[in-house]
Design goal:
CATH architecture of the largest domain in chain A: 3-Layer(aba) Sandwich
Family (chains A, B): Belongs to the aspartate/glutamate racemases family.
Helix content of chain A: 40-55%
GO molecular function (chains A, B): aspartate racemase activity
CATH topology of the largest domain in chain A: Rossmann fold
Protein name (chains A, B): Aspartate racemase
Enzyme class (chains A, B): isomerase
Largest sheet of chain A: 4 strands, parallel
Keywords (chains A, B): Isomerase
Oligomer: homodimer
Number of domains of chain A: 2
């Protein structure tokens, strides 16, 4: 559903009045890819060969740019980028660029435990001089885990309730903004009161970067095949 | 957006509690394909070469079955099926199979003018001994045209209003059921009162046929790449 959500964002962000104004897309939804978070935590099979197969498939089909609407997969970003002829957009760079800049900003990062261990959000925020907050692994992170799992199972209301409790904990710890750094979380956020936090939707920011990249190059104009 | 809607239906129809329970998908969204309806009406460029390119792309990537969530493209179904190594599911066959069987059933067909001229829905209903109704080309069909066009432009409320007027006309003419035979129409139907007609959503029925095909073959079980 996170892939569907990402595609919908691409379509909505594209200025279009007819089919032919939209951007050509090739979407490889490969759900049998081994769990990325478990692998980063050293508890599951390595998904990198499957991720590379996806990159190869898209390259063979001749795509011009690749966006991966799965945060945890960005643990292997360097290897994927090296393999691909088409450039790759980075979901964390796109998301951190959307954080409001202020000395008072404290950014909570909600993501899988694997993505947090990988640390690419923390590094990206530090490079921008932004303060961040991670949920307590024995507390609010459990709520984030449930939120992600329940979206994958299609139980959006249960997911929203868990997200709500995690947001309350983040706000209590002084967070003013929240990077929803797992593409399942924005789906749950429609079913949650997010405690007044400024929300940064990693899926939306990646979609924005993707559409911007395509429009700059005129890929929404007919003639791609002629 | 019709492609996004179709993908969402595939995901919702798949019994899944985690990523790995879902069905691998390759989605080629090629919006620059010449307008199918215009071409059937003899007023536009032939989209068949582009449709064949799409079939080739999917076959080269090794897909096991192909569904095309665009009704008008089914005008070229025989040529597309002949080109493809993977079998193709037919959207009209899937839709007509979902029509309630009763001697009192009269089925309105809402589709593009091109799809209606092509006649594949009429033939499929006739083969099943079902009575059908087509909107007046100078009346309700204009509302259907507007409905489809406005969904493509992202104006869902306007599209819903047009659909509503077309439904009232169909019900007044004795229709009891409606095949929404263009994959934009179901998106508009969420913004419309459809005059008590039994709705058959061609996109949903194609998604149901696709998921059924995949589940019978176990494509939702891990191991696709090993």
């Amino acid at each position: 559903m996170a892939t569907v959500d990402f595609m919908e964002k691409l379509v909505r962000l594209t200025p279009a009045t007819r089919d032919q104004d939209h951007i050509p897309l090739l979407v490889a939804s490969l759900p049998h890819t081994h769990d990325r978070s478990s692998a980063i935590l050293g508890r599951g099979r390595d998904p990198l060969p499957q991720l590379l197969q996806g990159i190869d498939l898209l390259n063979h089909a001749g795509v011009g740019v690749i966006a991966i609407p799965c945060n945890s997969s960005h643990h292997w970003f360097a290897q994927l980028r090296e393999r691909s002829q088409a450039p790759l957009l980075h979901i964390a760079e796109a998301s951190v660029a959307a954080v409001p800049r202020s000395h008072a900003t404290r950014v909570a990062i909600f993501a899988t435990r694997g993505a947090l261990l990988s640390g690419f959000y923390q590094r990206s925020l530090q490079e921008q001089g932004l303060d961040y907050f991670l949920p307590d692994p024995d507390g609010a992170q459990n709520e984030v885990d449930v939120c992600i799992r329940e979206v994958k199972a299609g139980r959006f209301n249960v997911a929203g309730s868990s997200l709500e409790r995690a947001c309350v904990a983040a706000a209590a710890a002084g967070a003013t903004a929240l990077i929803m750094g797992c593409t399942e979380i924005p789906i749950a956020s429609r079913h949650a009161d997010t405690a007044g936090l400024t929300l940064i939707d990693s899926s939306l920011e990646l979609a924005r970067a993707s559409v911007g990249y395509a429009l700059e190059r005129g890929w929404n104009r007919p003639g791609w095949d002629s």
